[in-house]
Design a protein that fits this description.
Layout (H helix, E strand, L loop, with lengths): L1 H18 L9 H16 L6 H13 L14 E4 L6 H16 L7 E4 L11 E2 L9 E4 L3 E4 L4 H9 L15 E4 L6 E3 L8 E3 L14 E3 L3 E2 L2 E5 L2 E3 L4 E2 L2 E2 H8 L9 H8 L10 H19 L4 E2 L1 H17 L8 H4 L23 E4 L10
Parallel strand pairs: 1-2, 14-15
Antiparallel strand pairs: 2-13, 3-6, 4-5, 6-7, 8-9, 10-13, 11-12, 11-16
Helix pairs in contact: 1-2, 6-8, 7-8
């Protein structure tokens, strides 16, 4: 293990100094740092990144995230170094502070908060929620679900831990469920003041507002492990801003999520008796129009899939000019609507698993025993 970690650290430090030559400008600085890291690994079984290494690693992890289309601005990622935070209550408080910094007044900022890493015999904290803001899913009468079906299991987990539940609406914000060494798994409410939400309306159809739809402004992924130079940070919530299709096509449109296409089609007066009428497609477009319109009316940062596709190809071009591979998973980069109408559809990509990166591992949470 020590050998593997030393090799990963050496590779990371090589990349760090290659892209940040000023950090190693002093004579012997690179060799001295490499020697220091090797000695620390051999003495303790791990090592600690400098603040500059952490910032670089977290940003490059975004750059290497093959499923993300919004990587053009990877250098702008704000890195909140909270590696000394381990207690569950403090982790929860910092997650709320993260949301505040990311949200601002609606001009969303890319932010990552890095908590304590895994160390030999001492795992770091873990956040069981897949995003810091998620809506509960309540199963009623065995079949009907109120809220987000994707979050039924996490909702049950929170209830088993003692959460009394929200108001029973389709958009009740779940508490944070946090696991830390030496403490039982605990939940922490996310207060309303920490969550900026946008009520969804349509620019052309007044009836749309009657659907009572809303969505939160910050997509802060919280269940992925940040891996930098062989060190794992299991709690490192990070966010960019939404591309409209993430909400309109997936969160609200998917059959396994809010499944709103039939209701939107009904409002539009579409013939749903025959798939050849393309009622799903027409409803999907109008649902996405509503999302983009509503966020812009509210002054909340969002982007459309055509603009973001062009930005992504600009990012690919910059990476190639810098002599770097830009890993990309075609099935994630191509938007879930109008794929062939976007430029990212019409080419192939080299999908490599590079480090540093944000890595999705097996979900930790299970419903605790009562």
């Amino acid at each position: 293990m020590g050998g593997e970690l030393e090799r990963a650290a050496e590779e990371f430090l090589g990349a760090f100094y290659a892209e940040n030559p000023a950090e190693g400008a002093a004579e012997g600085a690179v060799a001295a740092r490499s020697r220091q890291v090797r000695e620390e690994i051999r003495r303790t079984g791990t090592y600690r990144h400098t603040a500059a290494e952490l910032r670089f690693g977290a940003r490059v992890a975004w750059r290497n995230s093959s499923r993300c289309i919004g990587r053009l601005y990877w250098r702008s990622l704000r890195v909140r170094d909270r590696r000394d935070v381990r207690a569950a209550r403090d982790v929860a408080a910092e997650c709320l502070a993260h949301l505040g910094e990311a949200t601002g007044s609606g001009r969303i900022r890319p932010v990552v908060t890095v908590f304590a890493p895994d160390r030999p015999g001492e795992p770091g904290p873990r956040i069981w929620n897949d995003q810091l803001i998620r809506y509960a899913g309540y199963r009623r009468d065995g079949r009907t679900v109120v809220g987000d079906p994707q979050n039924i299991e996490l909702t049950r987990t929170a209830r088993a831990l003692g959460w009394t539940g929200g108001r029973g609406t389709a958009f009740d914000v779940l508490p944070l469920v946090i696991e830390t060494p030496g403490e039982p798994v605990r939940f922490f409410d996310v207060p309303g003041r920490a969550v900026l939400e946008v009520e969804l309306t349509h620019p052309d159809f007044r009836w749309f507002a009657g659907l009572g739809l809303r969505w939160h402004a910050v997509p802060a992924v919280s269940d992925m492990t940040l891996e930098i130079g062989g060190i794992s940070y299991p709690a490192a919530p990070f966010n960019g801003w939404y591309m409209g299709t993430e909400i309109g096509a997936r969160d609200l449109g998917d059959e396994g999520r809010y499944d709103l296409l039939p209701r939107v089609a009904e409002g539009l007066g579409l013939d749903t008796s025959d798939e050849a009428t393309l009622w799903r497609d027409r409803a999907l477009v109008e649902l996405n129009v509503a999302v983009l319109h509503s966020f812009r009316q509210a002054g909340v940062t969002i982007t459309d899939h055509h603009t973001e596709s062009r930005r992504f190809l600009a990012h690919v071009s910059k990476e190639e000019s810098a002599g770097r591979t830009c890993p990309a998973d075609w099935s994630w980069i191509v938007p879930p609507i109008s794929g062939s109408a976007t430029p990212v559809f019409h080419r192939l990509y080299n999908d490599r698993d590079l480090r540093p990166n944000y890595v999705r591992k097996a979900r930790a949470h299970r419903t605790p025993a009562r």
